[in-house]
Known about the structure:
- The protein is mainly α.
- The chain has helices at 32-43, 47-60, 65-77, 81-94, 99-111, 115-128, 130-144, 148-160, 168-180, 184-197, 202-214, 218-230, 237-249, 253-261, 270-283, 286-298, 305-317, 321-330, 335-350, 354-365, 372-388, 392-405, 410-422, 426-439, 444-457, 461-474, 479-491, 495-508, 512-524, 528-541, 546-555.
- 74% of the residues lie in helices and 0% in strands.
- α16 (286-298) runs antiparallel to α17.
- The longest helix has 17 residues, at 372-388.
- It is globular, with a radius of gyration of 26 Å.
Amino acid sequence: xxxxxxxxxxxxxVAILAAPAMARETGAAGPMKEAMAAEFAVSAGRLxxxxxxxxxxxxxxxxxxxxxxxxxxxALMGRDDRALKEALELWRKRAPETLAMRAADATLALRTGKxxxxxxxxxxxxxxxxxxxxxxxxxxxxxxxxxxxxxARVLGQLFERGALPTExxxxxxxxxxxxxxxxxALFGRxxxxxxxxHPDDPVMGLLRVRHLHxxxxxxxxxxxxxxxxxxxxxxxxxxxxxxxxTYAELGDPAAGAxxxxxxxxxxxxxxxxxxxxxLLAEADDxxxxxxxxxxxxxxxxxPNPARRLLLGQVAEFLxxxxxxxxxxxSVPGGEQRAxxxxxxTKVLHDLERGDEAYEALRALQQDADAxxxxxxxxxxxxxxxxxxxxxxxxxxxALARGLAAFADEPALLYSRALMWERNDDIPRxxxxxxxxxxxxxxxxxxxxxxxYTLADRTDRYEEALELIERARIAEPTNxxxxxxxxWVLYRLGRHQEALVELRRAFVLEKDAxxxxxxxxxxxxxxxxxxxxxxxxxxxxxDPDNRALRRAMEEVGE
Length: 557
């Protein structure tokens, strides 16, 4: 996936596959040559080779638990189950049993189709590990297996045997996992228990709403959401915000705005006021937005930077660019001042005062007293506005000047690489991404972007695989990187393996590009009806997604 990798905020994404305390150096008497060869293979993205070298090092150092642990860690990401088994056995012999060991053991059992052994290992994690145990168990089921259907069966067996913890957070995580694995019936059974034990749990309630909506029962979804909105579950502002956003997902952002307006405490919470304004803008409710704007303006006599910045943003929503400009120019200081100065240039551009906008951006770029990030962002903003003008030469010039002022600045190089890629100039896109990697060889964003670009736009698939493997080693549960990995496997003709990885990525992040990739692989496997279901999911998330448009062109839809 061609974008910056982002942290995942899902409980299932706990990185339990990383073994603890594995960073110590091998002693002088240890197998230094093998360990160094392993690290070189890791840095080159040759994962299977790294596992082989670490196993050699571990065999040669019978007392070194760290080497065996490191071999296990990388074997978990590889495809050689025999290597994983050997590495795990060596680790078990040399160190006390840990949750990570148990998780690795359960993963191996799932991979090799040993359903009962996997279930026993997961039951032990659930029984003895507390919250970390069930997080580990769910992570194994969500990301450790090559067969989502098998993971769903094992999760169902754990549920039927009463092995799943019943506290609200654990049940909602189990429900989310069931949905991610595509087992709607299992979600329904978990949800029934949750409703009986924790009828007012808002997290499970929101999952229930999304499940109903996804399965075409939008009327029922709305009833459940209305009950949540009028119940006692909205004690905290963050839950209220999530419920409001879910109304927008169901196509009624105005209802979400009404919910936020009904909160007496929200008037002083500018974050909630800003969310309400965005929902009203999405609903195109100009009257309500104007009333909110008027109320905000009444308190603007006190020079509160956050309030004045928000007033400028609401004025933009109301298509009052002149007022927006005045508000942005009146922001007195603080971190909001930098944002306001940048937004003011965007407003000038929208007012068709492009010369003033670019003059203001040049002034920011040359302001020696300005924060360096603001100066850098001024070049990025200029490139964005030039792109809106359709002036590719001026867009390129803005980025080139930015790079002259901030040599090899990653954000500027990344933005220029995306520009080259959009214009089908893959060699130049590659050159800029490689410049990022010269300065920061471990940049997962650049590794992933370059690997995905080579996989998607060239036939250099083996090289792409090595780059993506390097990113995957650093962030094994990052959905964007797993998506790239699945896509390069597809390009290599390994369609079944690709399907497993792409579905795993979608479990972690519901993204239109990932869904489009799943649909493409299914289409190539001849499973056309399933493919169209995935394309419809992608369309529901983002109908304008570029990967979806390309997929539809390829399949003739």
